[in-house]
Amino acid sequence: MQSAKPLKGRIALVTGGSRGIGRVIALRLAAEGADVIINYLRRKSAAEETVREARELGVAAHAIKANLAEPDRIEAMFDEIEASFGRLDILINNAASGVARTALELDDRGWDWAMDINARAFLLCARRAAPLMKEGGKMVAISSLGSRLAWPIYTAVGVSKAALEALVRYLAIELAPRGISVNGVAPGAVESEALKLYTADQDMAQSSWQTTPAGRMVRAEDIAAVVAFLCSEQADMIRGQIIVIDGGVSLAPGSPPAADRDQGG
Amino acid sequence: MSVEVEETVKKIIARILRKSDLDFSPTATFKDLEADSLDIVQILIAIEDAYDIEIQDEALEGVSNMGDFIDHIERRIAEKG
Question: What is the value of pTM for the model shown?
Fold first, then answer.
């Protein structure tokens, strides 16, 4: 019988874990018993609130401020993790940023910003995290369906997520001999503040992404559940995969949601 | 406005906007300074780092120019104590 706290005793770092999807993932891992380290960029009060909520779940929790666009800040974050905890078992690469531009509007700085935070940061974090995973570990990168589809004004993020997914595959093979599993998840449109940034001028009310064949939009909790599974021993033989979490909408973007079909007989 | 805060903010904005010599009046806006949304995010990150404060995006909705912006930063510094 599986333990109610399958991640008890594990130490997990969730980048961008103070709010949004990262916060929900951090609290899910905490609910499954993991001690959590919450990385944040700007929202100290939100990070402290997430830490408080995690501790209420009976685990240790700690917040570390670090701008993942800057390699020296990543180094400092891992120096602190190494000094305070001595090891790491789970790395969730969730922090993401970008600029809402079409390809032709995108300038070098916007490109670099998205690539640095969304793709390079995973490489730099993995490089420091792997030696801390002394008894093996799990890495999960949060990608996006924008890595393989072309959405308006999503260029920088979409391309950086494609690089992230390729990095997942390379790290999965390179780190397998160390007992480290590396995988990713690619959600479709998720109910979140970030979604508003990229859909402000579009009629989302009519979009199939809001409904999906599964009958509803993807929620942060859906992503957290898959991430927690990928962090469990049950997922040990899944390596270098990107799990799509979109309610099936990318398979049939124009199809009506399940509820409509049911009503129509 | 405090001269020290004003000078620090000007230096940060000049660095982010890659301008060797930057001066602006209190009535200047980010648009006047040709700062785009990424510039503004990076300016906020740098100022928050410099003063160990948190600037809520929502609080900036009432900020119309650089004078207001620096006043807001000074209030956040004062609140921190």
Answer: 0.91
